[in-house]
Design the sequence.
């Protein structure tokens, strides 16, 4: 399996946030007809937008775009997480998993593992130095 860089692993956290955002946006893409006006959204989950002369093709196209991006993000996240879980078992892998899969801070990882925050940082930095060589 191809090695990943620190930047690629950090990007996994960004992708997870984007995935959650896209899922919420897709859920809010609901249309309710009220006369010749369409209401888009769910008042319980966010603002309602009234659209005069509703264009169902545009909403359907946006939904398809969101679904496509969601699939791309899910595949990328899965690839990254499989790479991490393919590492040898041990504290190093556990720390990388907590940081780049679960999104935990160095401080919270340290508290969970019984290390200092600086030790967690050192383990992560040493890992990337090791795979770079």
Sequence:
């Amino acid at each position: 399996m191809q090695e990943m860089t620190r930047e690629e692993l950090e990007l996994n956290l960004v992708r997870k946030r984007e995935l959650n955002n896209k899922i919420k946006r897709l859920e809010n893409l609901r249309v309710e007809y009220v006369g010749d006006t369409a209401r888009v959204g769910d008042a319980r989950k966010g603002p309602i937008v009234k659209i005069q002369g509703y264009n169902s093709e545009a909403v359907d196209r946006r939904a398809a775009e969101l679904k496509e991006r969601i699939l791309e993000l899910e595949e990328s996240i899965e690839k990254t997480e499989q790479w991490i879980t393919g590492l040898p078992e041990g504290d190093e892998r556990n720390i990388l998993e907590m940081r780049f899969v679960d999104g935990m801070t160095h401080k919270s990882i340290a508290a969970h593992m019984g290390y200092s925050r600086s030790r967690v940082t050192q383990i992560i930095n040493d890992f990337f130095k090791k795979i770079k060589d």
